[in-house]
Amino acid sequence: MRPDVVTFWHGPLDRLRTLCLRSQVAAGHKVTVYSFDPLPGLPDGVGNAEAEAVLPHAFSEKLRPPQPDGSWRDWTILQFSDFFRMRLMAQGAGLWLDADVLLLKPIDVDPAKPYFAWERPRQLGNSVLYLPADDAIVKAFHDLMEQDELEPDWLALRHRCILVLRQLRGRSSRTADLRVAIYGPASLTALARRSGEISHAQPKQSFYAVHAEPKLFFEPGDFSKLIADPAIVGFHISPKGRGNQAPVAGSLYAWAAKRFGS
């Protein structure tokens, strides 16, 4: 099955993400970006849907209080998106791709099986994610979201100890403040192990060939092996502030901009 692609975005889209969305459309997927505000300048073939209908904006206050002007603080966007993708899975909306995933080819999934990939030797990535609506991981997140504390029952012992110490020292004891990815790859990995689904993970090379080494994407170099490798379906780029940077001649970024349109 070639699934629809879904994602969430908060704020203006940058140059790189726009390019990545184009690549997802070029791969033959129907692509929808959910947002709380309209997103101008979306590429042709990319739809825009209302995020409030999937996960209310007010849920963000469970993560941490907003700024005085109502805007989200530091990690809120990233953590909100961790829950948002699980809510989309519960609704059977399709395949989640982060907006900075550049696709080289289509993704087909078995609708009855999970689809994700290793990001690191012992950790799954959640930037590419499909789960059946009745999957145990989806159910675990549903139960978690019913809590005010958002403290997972799969939380590692060391994190539980850190929470206790933070409380004793008068610091924030919110689970959301432990680390930025507490509800992301770490939770997906723990739950996939618990549910016996870890064997479904695709190899790291499938999507994370440049994730830990962004220079392979942004800087000039020989990337011929990357684009010729049949094991690579796409690249999760994680630009870290370089989303509006112009492509440098001779880089994989420049190649992608030429292929998919800048």
- Which regions have little confidence, pLDDT < 50, spanning 5+ residues? none
Supply the number of helical segments: 9
Predict the CATH topology. Spore Coat Polysaccharide Biosynthesis Protein SpsA, Chain A
CATH class descriptor: Alpha Beta
**How many individual β-strands?**
8
Strand content: 5-15%
Named CATH architecture = Alpha-Beta Complex
Secondary structure: helix percent: 25-40%
Any idea what the radius of gyration is? 18 Å
Count of discrete domains: 1
Largest sheet: 6 strands, mixed
Spatial gap, N to C terminus: 29 Å
* Helix-strand topology string: EHEEHHEEEEHHHHHEH
The coarse silhouette is globular
Mean pLDDT figure = 95
- Which strand order does the major sheet show? 3-2-1-4-7-6
Short summary:
By secondary structure, the chain is of the alpha/beta class. Helix content is 31%, strand content 14%. It contains 9 helices and 8 strands.
